[in-house]
Amino acid sequence: MTDPNWSDFRIILALDKGGSVSGAARLLGVDTSTVSRRLAAAEGVFGAKLIVRGGGAFRFTPEGLAVLKAAEVMDATVSTTTLDVRSMRQAAEGTVRIACVPTAAHVLRPLVGEVGDTHPGLHVDLMSSISGIDLSKGDADIAVRTIPPKDPGLVIAHTFTWGSALYASRDYLARHGRPDTPEALCDHPLV
């Protein structure tokens, strides 16, 4: 008995995705008789019936489900590996514009050097400003924000958390008083 190869698993995956022999044939770009021959060959390699046909429909046998499960894992591995290898061959190049508030600039500044060291063709343009940045209009590629954006078309990822605090000298508090609420900060100069 020969060992199965990728095409034996691939035919089972195509049958599952296509939902029928003709659907599998369309996915694979072959005719239905080729799908039937490949299925028979796979069943011969595995030494078990993998599907049970009934009219135009079929169902997987327990052995067929085991092969399908393995085929799904293999397909995911092949897809991921293919993407990884292709991306390794393509050097990252160009400019990525990152907009951030000034308080985040010191956290992100080391990133500029790290990216340049790792990907010499890639340049990070760090834009530090309190003015609004509209990603949908192309003002920047990435925005580090302290509040979530409202645009549903943006991909949001929580990257890091940083705290903030307000400080005042004893003399200042003696002259102007301590604010009790965030709203009371409007009556105080902030640096």
Automatic annotation (TrEMBL):
Note the superkingdom of the native organism.
Bacteria
GO terms under biological process = DNA-templated transcription
The protein's UniProt keywords, in alphabetical order, are:
DNA-binding, Transcription, Transcription regulation
Transcription regulation as a keyword of this entry, yes or no, is: yes
Q: Which residues form the signal peptide?
A: none
* HTH lysR-type domain ranges (all copies): 4-61
Q: Name one GO molecular function term.
A: sequence-specific DNA binding
Q: Enumerate the PROSITE patterns for this protein.
A: HTH_LYSR
Pfam hit, one: LysR_substrate
Q: Which InterPro entries match?
A: LysR-type_TF_proteobact-type (IPR058163), LysR_HTH_N (IPR000847), LysR_subst-bd (IPR005119), WH-like_DNA-bd_sf (IPR036388), WH_DNA-bd_sf (IPR036390)
**Could you say which protein family the record assigns here?**
Belongs to the LysR transcriptional regulatory family.
Q: Per its record, how is this protein called by name? A: Regulatory helix-turn-helix protein, lysR family
**What is the species of this protein?**
Roseivivax lentus
Upper taxonomic lineage: Bacteria, Pseudomonadati, Pseudomonadota, Alphaproteobacteria, Rhodobacterales
